[in-house]
Structure formats: structure tokens, C-alpha cells
């Protein structure tokens, strides 16, 4: 049975509900852990959990096949942001090896109402995004890592997420299955 | 928090209040929200032992959201004017607030037959429950307590002291139980107007 793409697209929610829900989650983590590094880690882990499920949604909606190269991947990641967060980051600053690029965000629904207090300067508020990318790419046999180079919440003009290709993952049988 | 000495850096930061208030028309995909909410529920679940504890935790997080939307909506949609009459306030929640947050109005607003301090807001299928299937051993769990938390914080923040709980009844029913002084004050307000 084939599914209608249009039907999948129709479902949207108000971004403020999303923003505030995320904000609540981050502030709860800060209360629970009292250690900014631990919070960064936890956010990344949550992002990873989201990524490994979100990729399926992405493939279903776009019907996209395998990537030819990392440039192709970059464009698909960009499209993913448009579909799921309604923002289009710019792709730029390719590394010389073609295995590294930056996503530049002018705006970002996650940070809409956010101001970082001074004791949270090390908080990577949007670290969940790094986790989402790692999780999503891992499910299509690609290991990537990403980190924030610039952050609007810390006074930079734009938010820059650097993405680096690590290696291709070989098909592996999940543990516990023969 | 961190034990290192924080040297405050002079940053050219624009304050949140310097920026214009967004129109609130931004949208993200439902999948993104659903997965984020799922992480939130899982996180809460890992830190508690029982279903009531989990509900309390979710409600607290909802309250956090609720306390933040009060000003946002009254400034944007009602040009700074808060509601003073109970029924208008409830109606505001059923229509404006629900529509902005969840994309449509709540299905029903009812008052309990036997108690003038109890109201029900009824919703067939809350947005947050859309992709949640409750495990058998946690039958009473309704993750819409998160939404109940939002409503409670909005009502309390506007001076209508109450408790809001979520129940599995005709879909999900939010039971709003006001404190007696809220009801008597509301009656006085009504009397003054009719004089």
C-alpha cells in the first residue's frame, strides 16, 4: 500500500508550544543535574533517541535514496531541518577534505524566548540537535559528529553547527539476533 | 553550579525585550514535537517510581510552560487586558489559548451539575496523546496532565486559584476545581454589574 505524501505533511504544531516545552525540559535538567556538562551530555543523548526514530519519518516523506557523497548528505540534512523545524540553515565553510561543513542558523525555534544566565555560559542549549544528527545518520550507516562553533545565545551573530563525517558503518546484525 | 570562577565577559547581547514579539505563527512538524514530548515523558519516568509521581512531574513541567504563555497571549491577543470574570477566563482558555497552542479549540466546556466550583474542559484527542499508547500496567496514566499543568498555571497566574487534573473520560477531561473564594468573588463581581 502506498501512502499519500500530502497527508503526512499536513501535521504541524505551533512552534511556541515546542519552544516552551523544550525550555522546560532544559531547565528541569539543569535543576536535576546541577552540572552543565552533564546536561549537555543528556541533551545529546535525548537528541540521539529522537534522531534514530526521526530518520524514518524523513525517508517516508521525502522518498530519498542513498547519498552519493557528503555534499548530498549536507543537502538532505538541510531539507530535514526545513521539514521538522521549519528553518533553512545555510550550508557553508566546507573543509578541504569535503568531509566537514557548517550549518548556519539565522533563527532557530528552539531558542526563541531564551536568554542564558551567566552561570550557564557552558551550556550548549541546542545540543539536542547534535544528537539528532548523530542518531539519524547512524541509522543510514554513517557516523557523524557535530558541535557548536558559534551560538547566538552567547552573543554571536549566527549559530553555527559544524558537522564532520567520521566513517561509514558496515551493516551489522543487531545484538541478540541471529 | 560550576565550581570554576566565572569571569563575567562583556558580551554585546541584545536583550530578549529589545526584539519585537513574534506573531506566534511559526510552526514545526508534529513529529518533532511528539518525539520531544516522548523524551520528556521518558526522562520523567526514569526519575520516579510510581504513576502518580510521574503525573505530578509532568504536571509541574506543564505549569512551567503555562506560566510563560500568560503574558505572551494577553499581550499579543488581548492588548494587555486580563480577564476578571471567571467564565470569560475559561472561555479564553477554551478558545484563544487552545487554538494558539494546539491548533484548534477544545471540544467542550462544561460546569458540574452538583458543584459550582468545578468545571470540565473536554477534548477528544489531546495533541500530546496522539502517539502515546499507555502500557497496560499504567492504565491510569494520562500524559495530558502536562496540558492540565498548563491550564492550572494560566488560571492561577491570572488570579483564579484552582487545581486542574486530567482524567480518561470522553477522551480526556480536564477537571478544574476552583477555590471557594474565587467563586464568591466572581458572584460579587456579577452583583455589582447588575446593580
Automatic annotation (TrEMBL), chain A:
Record keywords: Endoplasmic reticulum, ER-Golgi transport, Golgi apparatus, Transport
Keyword Endoplasmic reticulum: yes
CDD domains noted in UniProt: TRAPPC3_bet3
InterPro entries listed in its UniProt record: Bet3, NO_sig/Golgi_transp_ligand-bd, TRAPP_component
One protein family per Pfam: TRAPP
GO cellular component: endoplasmic reticulum; Golgi apparatus; TRAPP complex
Any one GO BP annotation for this protein: Golgi vesicle transport
Domain of life assignment: Eukaryota
Protein family: Belongs to the TRAPP small subunits family. BET3 subfamily.
Known function: May play a role in vesicular transport from endoplasmic reticulum to Golgi.
Name this protein carries in UniProt: Trafficking protein particle complex subunit
Species the sequence originates in: Frankliniella occidentalis
Protein's gene: LOC113217471
Automatic annotation (TrEMBL), chain B:
Keywords: Endoplasmic reticulum, ER-Golgi transport, Golgi apparatus, Transport
Pfam families found in the cross-reference section: TRAPP
InterPro entries: NO_sig/Golgi_transp_ligand-bd, TRAPP-I_su5, TRAPP_component
GO cellular component: endoplasmic reticulum; TRAPPI protein complex; TRAPPII protein complex; TRAPPIII protein complex
Organism per entry: Frankliniella occidentalis
GO BP of this protein: endoplasmic reticulum to Golgi vesicle-mediated transport
Subcellular localization: Endoplasmic reticulum; Golgi apparatus, cis-Golgi network
UniProt lineage: Eukaryota, Metazoa, Ecdysozoa, Arthropoda, Hexapoda
Name recorded for this polypeptide: Trafficking protein particle complex subunit 5
Family per similarity comment: Belongs to the TRAPP small subunits family. BET3 subfamily.
Coiled coil spans: none
Superkingdom of this protein's organism: Eukaryota
Assembly and oligomerization: Part of the multisubunit TRAPP (transport protein particle) complex.
Membrane-traversing stretches: none
Task of the protein: May play a role in vesicular transport from endoplasmic reticulum to Golgi.
